[in-house]
Amino acid sequence: MQREKTGLPRSIADNLARQIKDGLLQAGAKLPSIREYAEGNGCSKNTVISAFDILTANGLIEPKRGSGFFVSRSVEVQPVGDEPTTLDRAMDVVWLMREQLQNKPEFLNLGEGFPPVEWLEETRLDQFHQRVVRTGVGSLFRYGSRFGYLPLRQHLQQKLAAYEIEAAPTQIVLTHGANQAMDMVLRYFVRPGDTVLVDDPGYYPLFGKLKLSGANMVGVPREIDGPDIAVLEEQLKTYRPKLFFTQSVGHNPTATDTSAAKAHRILRLAETYDLTIVENDALADLKPRSLTRISTLDQLRRTIYIGSFAKSVSAALRVGFLACDPALASDLADVKMLTHVSSSEYCERTLEAILSDGHFLRHTNHMQEKLRRATEAGVNALHALGAKIYKVSEQSLYLWAALPHGEDSIKFAKAMLAQSVILAPGTVFSPHAEGVSPYCRFNVAYLKDPRFAAALSTLG
After folding, report:
1. pLDDT digit string (tens) for 1-37?
2. Which GO terms describe its molecular function (predicted)?
3. Considering just the CA atoms, what is the radius of gyration of the chain in Å?
4. C-beta atoms surrounding 188 within 10 Å
5. What is the pLDDT of residues 52-77, one digit of tens each?
6. Are residues 398 and 455 in the same domain?
C-alpha cells in the first residue's frame, strides 16, 4: 500500500514524462481520462491523480476544466529518431554509425560513408517495382532460398567473372548487406577469445562486431600499397589466427589499393599458417575492374569474397553477398538460415531487375567519372588547406588526411561539430581506439562545400 502512495504515482509520472519529451505524446495532445488510465494500468484513480499532479507541477501537462488533461504546449520536445549531438559524447563506433544513419540537412557531413543521393538516383528504383511484382508475385509472400534468389546469383557469377574470379551459383550466398555477410563468417569461425586480424586503420563496424563476439582483435598496419607484410607474418607466428579481414581495393578509410606483389605474399603466408582471408570489396563498382584482388589470385580456395551494392545502387535495399568454397558456402547458408531464415527475395528480385537492365553499366561508368572529378577536386581542396593526404588517389570515395593543428582528431572533430561539420575521426578506425590519430576520413563528394573552409577559418 505504501508503494502505491509514493512509488507508483512517481513511476507513472516518469513514464508519461519520457513519452512527452520524446515526442510520443505531442504538445496539445489529450491524455486518457483518469478513470481510463486507472483501468488500463490496474491501479486506483487516486494513484493516477497523484501522477497527474506531479506532471502538472513540472509544467508537462495542464488541466482544462470540463475537458481533462492535455500535454503542455510549452514543452521542449526532442524530435523522434534524432538523438542530441553533444560535444562531450564519446566519438566511438556506435556514435559514428548513428551519425551515418541520421539525416541532418543543417550539417555538412564530411564523414559520410555513401555517395551523394543524386549520384544514385540514376538507378530509378521506382521503375522496377511493377516488374518485380508482375514476375514474382507467387514467391513474394514466402521465405526465399537459403542461398538467395538464383537469377541474381547467376548475375553475380558474371560480375565475379569480370574480376576473373570463377564462382558457380552454389558458391554464392546472398545476404542482408555486406555486414550480414561478415556476421555469418564470424558466427561460423570465431569463438570468444579467438584472435582475428584486421586492417589498422580499417572498417570500424567490423570492430564492433568483433567486440560483441568476444574476439581478440589484432591490427595489421596499413601501408600505401596494402598491409604491412612483415608485421602480418609476425602476428601469424604469434597468434595463429583463423581469419584476416582486409580490403584490397578502395580501402576504407585510407583509399589505398593492395599491390599485386603484396597480394601474392599474403596468399603464401595464408597457405603457410592455415589462414582464411575475408576480402571486403564493398566499393567494387566505384573502382576499375583491373585492380588486384586476392580472391582473383586465390580463386576462393583460402578467401571469402564479400560484395555489396550499397554504394552503387541503394543502401536501403540491403543486398550483399559472399562467395567462397562450395562446402563452406553451404555451411554459411545454413548459418544464415538459422540466424535470419532468409534474405529478402523482394529486394533481391529488385536488384536482379536493375542488373538485367543495360543501363546499370552506364550508371556505374557515370558514377566512376563523377568520382574521378570529385577526387581531384577533393585533393585540391585539402592541399589548399595545408592537409597531409596519406595516399593521393585518382578515384576514391574517401581520402585519409591530417589537417594542420588537428593532431588529435577526436578533439578536432568535436570542435568542428560545434561549427555544424561532422567529421569521421581517425581514432574510430583503429581496432585500438585508446590511441590518438591526426587523421580523419573525408568523403570526396563534399570537400568542395564552402562550409568546410568557413568552419576551419572560424576555428582559426
Report:
1. 444 445 788 888 888 887 787 677 778 888 888 888 8
2. DNA binding; DNA-binding transcription factor activity; pyridoxal phosphate binding; transaminase activity
3. 26
4. 16
5. 988 888 888 998 888 889 888 776 65
6. yes
Half-sphere exposure of 163 (CA within 13 A, CB side): 27
How would you label 50-77 residue by residue, b for 16+ Cβ within 10 Å and e otherwise? Answer: bbbebbeeeebbeeeeeeebbbbeebee
Query: Could you say which of 356, 383, 414 is where a domain stops?
Result: 356
If asked whether residues 146 and 215 sit together in one domain, one would say yes
In a domain, 234, yes or no: yes
Task: Report the distance separating Cα 73 and Cα 62, nearest Å.
Answer: 9
Count how many domains the chain has. Answer: 3
Query: Strand order of the sheet with strand 439-443?
Result: 388-389, 398-402, 439-443, 424-425
Residues found in the chain: 460
**Which pLDDT score is estimated for 134?**
66
Q: Confidence class of residue 101 from pLDDT cuts 50, 70 and 90? A: low
307 assigned to some structural domain: yes
Angle between helices 2-21 and 45-57 (to 10 degrees): 50
Residue 81 lies in a domain: no
Residues 190, 317 within the same domain: yes
Q: How many CB atoms lie within 10 A of CB 266?
A: 27
Q: Does 193 lie in the same domain as 98?
A: no
Question: Are both 319 and 385 inside the same structural domain?
Answer: no
Cis bond before residue 253 (omega within 30° of 0): yes
With beta carbons less than 8 A apart as the criterion, state whether 322 and 185 touch: yes
Look at residues 287, 253, 249 and name the one whose alpha carbon lies nearest to residue 402.
253
Please tell me whether residues 369 and 329 are part of one structural domain. Answer: no
Sign of torsion over alpha carbons 369, 373, 376, 378: negative
Q: What is the pLDDT of residues 407-439, one digit of tens each?
A: 898 889 888 888 889 899 998 899 886 778 999
* C-beta pairs of 267-275 under 8 Å, 24+ apart in sequence: 267/294, 267/297, 267/298, 267/302, 269/229, 269/232, 269/233, 269/236, 270/244, 270/298, 270/302, 271/302, 272/236, 273/236, 273/237, 273/240, 274/240, 275/236, 275/241, 275/242, 275/243, 275/244, 275/302
Name the residue among 401, 408, 411 with its Cα closest to residue 381. Answer: 401
Same domain, 305 and 334: yes
Residue 408 belongs to what domain range? Answer: 93-120+361-459
Q: What pLDDT was estimated at residue 90?
A: 40
The pLDDT, as a whole number, for residue 93 is 55
- Strand pairing partners for 305? 279, 323
- Comparing CA positions, the residue from 283, 299, 255, 254 lying closest to residue 429 is 254
Q: Residue 225 falls within a domain, yes or no?
A: yes
